[in-house]
Amino acid sequence: VKTNVSLRSRRLEWPANLSSDDLIDLGWAPKPITQFILKVHSRCNLACDYCYIYEMGDSTWQSQPIAMSEDVTRQAALRIREHAKRYELDQVSIVLHGGEPLMLNAARLRSLLDILVGELEPDVSVDLAMQTNGTLLTSDRLDILLRHAVSIGISLDGDETTHDLHRKTRTGEGSYSQVVQGIERLLDSEAGFLFTGFLVAINNASNPSVVYESLAAFDPPAMDFLLPHGNWTALPPNHDPNKTLYGDWLVQLFDYWYDISALKPRIRFFESIMNKINGGESLTETIGLSESKLVVIETNGNYELVDVMKSAYSGAAATELNVFDDPLDSVAELPTVAVRQIGAAGLSAQCASCSLMDVCGGGYFPHRYKAGYGFQLPSVYCNDLQRIIEHIQSRIDLERNGGSSD
Ligand code: SF4
Q1: Can you give the pLDDT at residue 5?
Q2: pLDDT tens-digit profile of 308-333?
Q3: Nearest atom in ligand 1 to 351's CA
Q4: Residue 151 neighbours by CB under 8 Å, 6+ apart
Q5: Ligand 1 atom nearest to 385, measured from its CA
Q6: 227, 286, 289, 379: which to mutate for ligand 1, most atoms within 8 A of CB?
Q7: Strand partners, 381
């Protein structure tokens, strides 16, 4: 009974309570989905304590098949091709994700990639990528990834101490040495050029310059720093919404990175803020009102929303739609997707009237959640976002005026 009451009340939360007429009144029109996150394996060989799939509000992974079957893979590819044809898309992006995608052995990985590419190309060009914890980058898997030119992003949180604090093996030890062995195997192989960089969960108790230098030692093309997931009901770790602990950390990292004059890794979060300040576009959904253009396909073929939604509550990413019964258009019409495609009309009143709204965009959608209200609130990181945006703005202004930072 408790569950039913809870689900019913969540259907009344914004934006689940919006009808299609409401959405059209808000200015929404159908838009194509161009990025597909395929959950090819639903389990992980690590046990990171901050994991939004296994350690936060959601428990839906327990009922998922362990790996995506050939039937689901083929049907997912057919749905993507159908969608690309309808919107005349020449290219789509497919990201292999998990759990840990490399828990697939080399034979399963080869067959999955052969099916995806075989069903889509040459009609639709496929940009293939993978997000992995790096520990299973073995030479046989690297050969398969090379054959299909799959770009490889690796999750690494910085120096050994910072990384091992949360990213642990199933036996409770730090995973840093295993990840580094995987990175070294990748960089020493012919597939080394496929390395796209690091995904880094921020620990605001760490030293930003130490974290940066530890990552830079591997010469990554990019570093994507992520604010830990959480919301107004389940606050992120070591976070006080009235303070700017994460904003202060980001300011230190920005200054350290910005002041390096040599060629340096890209940091899309900072580049997005700089772009928006200069009238350009954001490069990430986490800031700047970027349109949501991605859908997750689970191992059983269910469509889901961006999986970080699972950090809000159990089932927050679920859609009740799947690749066998439903076209991708059905997902694009869901209120939780549509409200992320209508710009400021999808924000809270506080964000809509905020002087930083155009740059910030209300922050990352899952971080706006509060039980009983839904997602129409400022980010739980509002003060941190103001801190880093205003700081970057001041550095840009100073540079424009020919000054130097102190
Ligand atoms: S989250 Fe805060 S800083 Fe960002 S737009 Fe909303 S009110 Fe402004």
Answers
A1: 43
A2: 888 788 788 889 999 999 999 999 88
A3: 6
A4: 127, 128, 129, 130, 194, 195, 196
A5: 3
A6: 379
A7: none
